[in-house]
Design goal:
Elements lengths: L3 E6 L6 H11 L4 E7 L1 H6 L8 H9 L6 E5 L5 H7 L4 E5 L14 E5 L7 H12 L3 H17 L2
Parallel strand pairs: 1-2, 1-4, 2-3, 4-5
Bound molecules: cytidine-5'-triphosphate.
Length: 153
């Protein structure tokens, strides 16, 4: 009988940790469903994504380990999803360890180790550092402007 696996996540700024997770999830069954969180759900959680839902969903859908993408629009849809899609295994990274044990009467619940050293939060931080202009550069720009003002006065 075919085994269905389901997972949930935002998958913003898709990175190698996401890919590794999806590869491992595919190996747990025959059919992998990924519930990608909507922008509205993220907003309700106080989370803002860099990439809008439609694009995050399309990227995840195009990964060869993934069979189907559904929207994750609320915290409480999991039990319904498990029943509706006849899910055998609910699996997610171990940053969520213990949080979804309530599904255990309905399916297997698995927490997989995260890939070290990469996360969307870290990528956003790097981007911020990369984009932020140093104080020295701002002061230098003021000096240049002041010089130009004098030259053209
Ligand atoms: N994940 C993982 N390894 C990572 C990062 C994420 O296995 N290095 C897993 C998470 O445990 C989750 C799924 O990927 O099961 C989607 O996680 P998501 O929250 O979208 O990614 P993060 O990089 O953890 O994002 P954030 O930093 O915003 O929490």
């Amino acid at each position: 009988m075919s085994e269905t696996v389901i997972t949930y996540g935002t998958f913003d700024m898709f990175h190698i940790g996401h890919l590794n997770l999806l590869r491992r999830l595919e190996a747990l069954g025959d059919r992998l469903i990924v519930a990608v969180s909507t922008d509205e759900f993220n907003a309700a959680k106080g989370k803002r994504t860099m990439i809008p839902f439609e694009q995050r969903a399309e990227i995840v859908r195009s990964i060869r380990f993934v069979d189907e993408v559904i929207p994750e629009a609320s915290w409480d849809q999991k039990l319904d999803d498990v029943k509706r899609h006849s899910v055998n295994t609910f699996a997610i990274g171990d940053d969520w360890k213990g949080r979804f044990d309530f599904l255990a009467p309905h399916c297997k619940v698995v927490y997989l180790p995260r890939t070290d050293g990469v996360s969307t939060t870290e990528l956003k931080r790097s981007l911020n550092r990369f984009c932020s202009v140093s104080r020295e550069d701002v002061l230098r720009a003021f000096d240049v402007l002041e010089q130009l003002r004098r030259d053209f006065a």
